[in-house]
């Protein structure tokens, strides 16, 4: 190789080595609790805010079911994820997810919410016992308010699993779809939560004369924002600080109408682990 070629090659190598490293990309995963497009739109202010605060591109990842987001974190395709309480517990086991914040609804002083059973108001279903033998829909096996808690309520009340207690039993995939199935009388009743119910009622997607709440659960810990446990500690600290202080700079958004985010820890979700244990559910039961 000539001296000139060696010089040119050395110069090029120097430019490559001196070039700034490419920016990392942070990926935020969202479980499909509601309509996917609507959820992406709702989380956009938070995504943009995080991008600004972290100084790195932040993109959103969605999947067709809860399991897809858990699996994406396990494979390190996402760095931050919004889970429900149960899907977080599963993601902790499968992917090392760590909860750090949950949204506080406007006018509330805690991050809790409730699972509810809804029936069409002109039906003969006025209580849980009236659902025996009926066509009932839950949301997803990995949903807390649309899977775990309603299952727990039926088992504790009647000593039977939902598929034994109901005449016909299915999953709709999202909370919105469960409510619409009741409104359209595709099912006799469905499990949902008070956040989605109030949101859809406010938007006029059904009326109180169509979808009636016939039962509600004890308070559940709020849906957490989590990050992968193997992220660098300094990145975790930046993410947590940004989310917990976001309300000082923007109108925060997320699941429900929120005023701000509050810090949560794994201990906040012990009741969910206890329900899983009491029902004797396996990972396979919840990751169908």
Describe the structure.
The chain is α/β, with parallel strands linked by helices and 288 residues long. Helices cover 41% and strands 20% of the residues. The chain has eleven helices and eleven strands. The strands form two sheets. Strands 2-1-3-10-4-11 form a six-stranded mixed beta sheet, with helices on both faces. It has a five-stranded mixed beta sheet with strand order 7-6-8-5-9. α2 links the parallel β1 and β2. α2 packs across α9, α3 (66-74) runs parallel beside α4 and α5 crosses α10. The longest helix is centred in the first third of the chain and has 19 residues, at 36-54. The protein is globular, with a radius of gyration of 23 Å. The termini are far apart.
Give a short synopsis of this structure:
With 288 residues, the protein is of the alpha/beta class. It has eleven helices and eleven strands.
Structural class: alpha/beta
How far apart the termini lie comes to 62 Å
Helix count, DSSP H or I runs of 4 or more residues: 11
**Fraction of residues in β-strands:** 15-25%
In round numbers, the mean pLDDT is 91
What order do the SSEs take from the amino end to the carboxyl end, as H and E? HEHEHEHEEEHHEHEHEEHEHH
Radius of gyration: 23 Å
Q: Overall 3D geometry?
A: globular
Are there runs of 5+ residues with pLDDT below 50, and where?
2-23
Instruction: List how many beta strands DSSP finds.
Output: 11
Helical coverage, percent range? 40-55%
Q: Main sheet: which strands, in order across? A: 2-1-3-10-4-11
Q: Which quaternary structure do these chains form?
A: single chain
Biggest sheet statistics: 6 strands, mixed
């Amino acid at each position: 190789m000539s001296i000139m070629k060696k010089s040119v090659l050395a110069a090029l190598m120097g430019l490559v080595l001196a070039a700034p490293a490419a920016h990392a990309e942070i990926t935020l995963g969202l479980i499909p609790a509601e309509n996917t497009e609507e959820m992406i739109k709702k989380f956009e202010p938070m995504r943009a805010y995080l991008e600004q605060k972290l100084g790195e591109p932040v993109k959103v990842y969605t999947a067709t079911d809860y399991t897809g987001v858990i699996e994406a974190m396990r494979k390190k395709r996402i760095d931050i994820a919004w889970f429900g309480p149960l899907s977080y517990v599963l993601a902790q086991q499968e992917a090392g997810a760590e909860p750090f914040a949950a949204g506080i609804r406007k006018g509330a002083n805690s991050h809790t919410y409730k699972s509810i059973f809804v029936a069409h108001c002109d039906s003969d279903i006025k209580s849980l016992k009236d659902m025996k033998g009926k066509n009932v829909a839950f949301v997803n096996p990995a949903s807390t308010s649309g899977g775990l808690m309603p299952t727990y309520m039926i088992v504790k009340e009647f000593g039977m699993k939902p598929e034994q207690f109901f005449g016909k039993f299915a999953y709709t995939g999202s909370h919105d779809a469960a409510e619409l199935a009741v409104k359209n009388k595709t099912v006799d009743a469905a499990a949902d939560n008070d956040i989605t119910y109030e949101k859809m009622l406010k938007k006029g997607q059904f009326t109180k004369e169509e979808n009636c709440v016939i039962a509600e659960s004890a308070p559940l810990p709020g849906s957490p924002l989590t990050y992968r446990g193997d992220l660098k500690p300094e990145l975790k600290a930046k993410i947590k600080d940004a989310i917990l202080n976001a309300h000082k700079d923007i109108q925060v958004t997320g699941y429900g109408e929120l005023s701000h985010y509050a810090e949560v820890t794994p201990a906040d979700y012990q009741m969910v682990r206890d329900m899983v244990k009491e029902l004797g559910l396996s990972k396979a039961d919840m990751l169908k």
